[in-house]
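Lay summary. Proteins are chains of building blocks that fold into shapes, and those shapes determine what they do. In this project we predict the shape from the chain. Here is one chain we studied, written as its sequence of building blocks.
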Amino acid sequence: MRPHLVVIGGGITGLSAAWTAARHGAGFSDGCDVTVIEREAEAGGKARTHRNGGWLAEGGPAGFLSGRPAIERIIAEAELTDEVVTANKAAAHRFVYFNSALRRVVPNPVGLVTAGLLDVRGALRLLGEPFVPTRRSGPEESVWDFAARRIGAQAADRLVAPMTLGIYAGDAHQLSLPSAFPRMAALESEHGSLVRGLIAKRGRMATGTLTSFRDGLQTLPRELSRRGRFATQTRRAVRALAHDGARWSVSVEGGPALVADAVVIAVEAWAAAPLLDGVAPPSAAALRQFDYPPVTVVSLGFAPGDASGVPNGFGVLITRGEGLRALGNLWDSQFFPSRSPSGHLLLRAMLGGAVDRDAGTLDDEAAVALVRRELARLYGTVAAPVFSHVVRWPRAIPQYTVGHADRVRAVRDGLRAQPGLFIAGSALDGIAFADAAASGVNAAEDALRWLRTTRS
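And here is the predicted shape, written in a compact code that computers can read:
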């Protein structure tokens, strides 16, 4: 009898798990049956691509970094390699809005002073980083505390805090350094200094090129769902899980319960928690502690010449205290030119996050009006956009706040006594698109190993 794996959640994590289990479950005599249950009308999770004529607007991630084995293997297996596009050189030009001006981020102290991001004192403090004592013990540090200790408060406020907003929509004073930026923590622990660590790594914190698909990031989950050797049930919400000592029962709204030999939970922490109340209460309690602040993504398109004040580059992050509410802007059609008609500009602004939750709850009209006012200040752009699209996420990016690793450990420890139950997702294994895919792959491989053990 073929084993049956149920995957709860049809985002990139769940679909990567289903794809892996269905494709690599050949160790069983007849293969492995896989069913994906997704509450929304279509699969994809936060990979949400909107196409309107010559415009292509992403409602979630802009893309993923190349060089990640799990997602690249899936792309190859799904025969999507020819659909891959990489960002052009404009993606290397990044800006921070500070002291009422756009300032290009140049990766050296002299350049940062010339750009007006640091003064001489701040640059000297940054240059002194190799002489800062290595911290080997003590309480878990926030991202800001770590940065201020190693490179100074000025650089922490003007460089690291905006970067944290851009990645997590999060507050650098609250996020955990080892959980949110493990590579940065490793540089100190392994090399005693960020500078010495970067020298050892030839100046690279992370490798890879920003990558997407011709028809946007949702191409991958859409094609996995369409081509996968598994069943996908959309518009169906899982209500409860139960185990009878042999198999799992997955109660689904509006239909009969599914019987499964193993289950992979691949939904966000807030959605996973109630499913575990009856089977793993400690895990459910830990999952409820994860914070997901709201974020609204406003995409605006401008005719040629109407946004001439926008420089060539990837985008701008905005330091707090400037009187602006947006976390930053991405200039999508500058690094992926095919996302707007020729000569036009597609720009995205992010509102909300952990530092301004109210801005993330604005309705569409209010969000667009706010962004237009701020664009006038940032770039002098006052012309009306010729394209607009708004996506609101009431619960956006999981915040890896101080204590995150302990919460993740509590979630996983609580599941150890539950045979055949696995969990994956961005709340646990990294918020990046490629990390979420890898999390799904790993959960599927764990499930397959467990199934083989129980059937041997």
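What the prediction tells us: The chain has three domains: 4-47+217-290+400-455, 121-200, 293-393.
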